[in-house]
Every structure is written in C-alpha cells, then in structure tokens.
Structure prediction request, 662 residues.
Amino acid sequence: MILDTIILENFGAYGGRQEAVLTPEDGKPVILFGGMNGGGKTTLLDAIQLAFYGPKARLSNRGRGYRDYLRDSIHRGSDPGEGASVTLHFRRVVEGEIRRFELQRYWRAGVKGIEETVRVLSDGKLDDVFTEHWDEIIETYLPSGIAHLFFFDGEQIKELAEGGHAAEILGTAVHSLLGLDLLDRLESDLKVFERRKKAEALDPEATQELHQARGELQQIESEQEKVAMQEGAFVNQAGRLGKEVQEKEEQFRAEGGDLYLRRKELEAELALLKARKATMEARLRELVAGPLPLLLVDSLLGEVEQQARRETEIRRARALQDALEVRDREVLAILEVENGAAEPIRKITRILAADRAQRIGLAKEPLILDAEDGLSARLAHLRAVMLPQAKEQARDLADKLAGLEEKIARLELEKDRVPTEDRIEVIQRELEAARGAHQAKLAELEAVRVRQEALRRQWVAVDARLDQLGEHDLKARFAEDDRQRMLKHSRRVRETLGRFRARVVRRHIASMEVLMLESFRKLLRKTELIAGLTINPETFEVTLVGRDGKVLPFDRLSAGERQLLATSLLWGLARASGRPVPTIIDTPLGRLDSSHRRHLIERYFPCASHQVILLSTDEEIVGPYYEALKPFISRTYLLNHDNGLGMTNLELGYFSENETTH
Prediction:
C-alpha cells in the first residue's frame, strides 16, 4: 500500500480544506511533517486511522463514545451542519494488479445527531461493494488489532518501554497478527453454546441462579468497558501532562534552572579551585624568590664558571712557579757548595731560567674574580641541576595555573549566569505544579488499572461459577444423548483450539524473536550487549540474554536503550506481518539522547517501510538530525498554527533555523 494524498476538511485543528501529497520518490521513503506541540501532528495521525477504521480506530482523544468524538472533531470555526471529512487517496495490489482507491469518511451534525457517510472509489468510480463492506475489507487487509504496529507515537513507545503492560501489548499484537482473535471468538461462542445446553436441564432454582450469575457477568463486562474507556482517557491525559512537564523542564533549563539548583555546588567548587590556585601561586613565588631568576643570566653564569675554572689554573700555575724558583735556588746553592765549575753552573742557571720563563705565561694572567677554588664546581651544579629543576617546576606550575584559571573563569561565567531566586521562582512553581498534576494523573491511571484487575478477577470468579452451575449434577440431569454428545464435542473442540493456539504461537514466535533481535541489533549502539531475545509463548514476556549467556534484566538498559528495544519489538512484528504497509510515527524521537536519536535517524527511519511518514516537533528532527535524514526525504510539510484564528494550515517547507532550539 502507498498513501498518495490526504485531504482534511474542517477536521480538528485544520480549518477549511487542507491537502498534502504523501507519495514517496524512489529511494526517498520519508515524508516529514514539522509542527509545534499542539499544532496538529497527532490530529493528522488520528485522521488516517479514523479514515481506515472508523469506530475501531485507536484515537488519541477518544475518551467518550465514537459519535461524541466525531462531533468534537469538527473544526470549531466551521458550521457543524456542514460537518467535516477525511479523504485518503491510496493504491495497493489487488489480485496481482495495482488499483487506486479514494476513501472518504464524512460526518455532520444532523437532526438526529451525528450522521456519518463512508464512500470508496476504485480507479475513479464509486465501488458499491467496497463502500458497503469497507469495515470487513480493511480488517482482512490490515486488521485494526495490528494497526498500532504501523501507526504509533512516542508515548506508545514509552509505555511499551517503561510500563508493565509490554507483555499484554505484545500478546494482543501477536494474537491479531496470527489471526488468533478468531479462535478466541469461536471459543467464546462455544462456551456460550455449552452453557445454553447445560441450562436446558437445570431446575428452576438453578436456572434462576444461572440467570443471576449471567446478569452479574454482563454488569461486570459493562463496568469493564467503562473502565477501559476511562483508562484510555487517563492515558491520553497523562501523555499530554507528560509533554507539558517536558516543556516546563525545557523552559526551566532555558531560564538557567539547572544552574540555580547547582549554585551551592558551583560556589563550593569555585572556592576549592581558588584555594588550589593560591597554593600553586605561593609555590611559584618560592621558586621566583630562589634560584629561578638566574635563568635570565644563564650565559653570564657560564662565563663566570669558565673564568673561575681559569683562575684556579692561574693560581696553580703561580704556586708551581714559586716552587720551581725555590727548587732552582736550592739546586744552584748545592752546586756552589760543591765547588762546581763556574761555566756549568752558568749553563744550568740559564737552562732553569729558560724553563721558568716558559712556564710563567699562565701565572702572569690577572685574577678578576679572585674567588675560592670551589666556585666553578658550585656554578656547574647550579646550571646543570638546580636551574633545570626550577625551570621544570615553574613550567609545570604555570600549566596547572593556566588550567585552573580556565576552570575558574568558566565556573565564574556559569555563576554569573545563575538566575536570581525571584526570576526562577515562578517557572519553578509552574514546573512543580505540572509534575504534581502529572503524578496525580498517573496515580488516577494506576487506580483505574487496579480497578480493571479487580473486575477481571470478579469476571473470572463469576465465569467459573457459571461453569460450575452448568456442570452441577450434569450427568444425572442430561438424559438426552445428543445434548451430552454436543457438549462433549464442544469441549473437545475448545481443547483442540487451545492446543492449536499454543502450537501456532510456538511455531511463529521463533521467527518473530529473530526479527526483533535483528531489529534491536540494528538500532542498538552496543552491538556486543545482547546475544539473544526470547518471548514466552504463554505470557509473552520478553527476556534478553547477554553475551555471558545470562539473563539481562531490563533495568540494566538505559532509558534510551529500552525505548530502542520497544521500537525494535514493533518493527520486528511489523516485518513479521509481511504486509507492505506505510509506517507513520508521531513524536518519533521522544526523550532519546543524541546517540540513540542518530541510530533511529540512520538505521530505522530510512528502512522502516517503503513509505515512512514522520510527525516531528521543533526539538526532534532538526539540525544535524535533519541533515542526516535529508537524503531519504521526498518532501516536507510545516504545520503552521495560527493561535488567533485557532487554525492549522498545511504548508510546504520545514522549520527554519531560528524556529528551533538547536
């Protein structure tokens, strides 16, 4: 099936005639609608489901009866007598040929209440058969029980991911997908048949008790229907309140609420960083007060070191000269005492004088520093060890101080951004009020569900009592063989249906598990996290198995991962259905974080179906997410809501950058 066009006339927020072309281009399956909260996105999803299913449609604001819903959905600015309508142009393959259909559902307020008309045109001509039997035809092609596998919203994903009703939702979907709801109706009809046969032989007292039990059962069923409608209304109201809480939280963050709540933490962290900065500055000052400034005259220190070493050699040369003079005098004195010849003594005197003259050059150099001999060694140690260490310590302290100053500047900037208490008080009260209303509505919803469970137990008890009344003294009272035979065979048929149902579920559940796990792995960021996924064929509870072969509890998954799992379950069931039906998603990204959002953008939306219609807010498919999805988008529409007129218009285009929060 491919949806080609949708036309809305005075439906909900859409005043007048609004039309959108939905036909996807080759390789571009996505049709993207953008709209603010309350702008008509959910109404658009409701319109498609209403056109297809009428009273059986799962609508967002269906808290009362179907006729009341139709009356309320007529645009407030239009004449109820003229009414409203939803028209869908679509095509699908029928008996091997592509046929084009026009489905119109029109209603108006008449003298006797709401009057509704359904018309179906096939290839441009009114088709009486399709028009008269449309409910049966659409249930055969796409049963309303599995429509939520293809048409759903973020709140449905959230309930499937977080609520305790996942098994119930999956069980309903699997039963509808496999056509087991027909078996349930047949089994129920057989039970009614058996009770009627059993009642034929009961005495008046037992018959009266049986009628009383049947009346109780009908009363309970009536109460269950009312409570179910009440639950639906509460679910919708809780969803709207949840969105309001989300909006208030975003407003609170935009006004600096998070910074306001962290102000004491910011002040403490800022004080700690300043104390660390003061300690490092003190250590740096100690280095500056020590040898560190000598790095500025390192070359001069080298020259002083060389000069000190030279003067040490000069002093040694002078000492050697003095020693040689003493030695020469002593040698000449000895020679004179020994009465040596004068000529040899003169030669020796000249030789010794020449030797001293040769050595006297270094000793004649002046002593500029005239420092002690150990000065050159101390200067060498200073330049080779102490100054490099001081330089490294100073560099390390300077780097750390730069990092601290950057952190301090950032924290001071955040501190300056902290709003005053007067400024944040109003929005904080509004946020707390929204949260309180949401929690109160959730409590009401839980109370209704508790009531549902109590009614279910009452129904089971009364149903069992009906069976007991029918079975009481059955053999003694049923004298007619044909009645016994019919009852016997009816029970056998019910038993066979039960076994057949279990076998059908077990036979198909394995392929569903494979498709769900494959879908989950496509979407999941941590591909090594999940090794297996199983569904209990009786309770329909989902169990995840980790790489270690052990059961992986759902609470080990993040909130985003649980939402991806819920999406994977719906995706896997939709693929298992084998029906080429478009996928329509309202509020597609919900509260997913950026990494999980990108996985949906890149891995799910482009391949969820051959036609994917997305209804996004200005905080979802925008910025980089829009750019990533853009190659797969055939066309975009903007739901432009005029608050003054109370009307939404369908326009080609999408959010501009200054209209988004990204």
